[in-house]
Amino acid sequence: MQRGRGAGMSYRGNGQTARDKANASDVELGLRENSAHLDALSDKVSLLKGLTQEIEGEVAGQNRFLDTMGGGLGNAGSALDSTMAALERMSSQGGARFGLCVAGAVVVFFFCLRYAVLTARG
């Protein structure tokens, strides 16, 4: 029986059984697949990082634009306030005739604006 055992060990080669070789092959294949998946994941992370940086730049630009626009609107608001104050002073001095003239001017302005929009459209 000793001889049978010795003969059984001869197929091992360098001390590994066929099962050990298959397991080692499976492990190596798994490591290669993991490496390929990690490379793909790394590419996707790099792409997302680039997109995030582009979004950050766009948001910063839009914030700057909105800040300048807000300042412009604030100036327009103060200009409208001063215009309304001047109109109130003038209306208190001019009476009903002044109010009628202002209403007529507003109506004419809106008709002119409507005409300009309609002719621009075509």
Automatic annotation (TrEMBL):
Keywords associated with the record: Golgi apparatus, Membrane, Protein transport, Transmembrane, Transmembrane helix, Transport
T-SNARE coiled-coil homology domain residues: 28-90
Region feature Disordered, mapped onto this chain: 1-26
Lineage of source species: Eukaryota, Sar, Stramenopiles, Ochrophyta, Pelagophyceae
CDD domains documented for this protein: SNARE_Bet1 (cd15853)
SUPFAM superfamilies for this protein: SNARE fusion complex (SSF58038)
Main location: membrane
BP-aspect Gene Ontology terms: protein transport
Transmembrane regions: 98-117
PROSITE patterns in the cross-refs: T_SNARE
Record's protein name: t-SNARE coiled-coil homology domain-containing protein
Organism the protein comes from: Pelagomonas calceolata
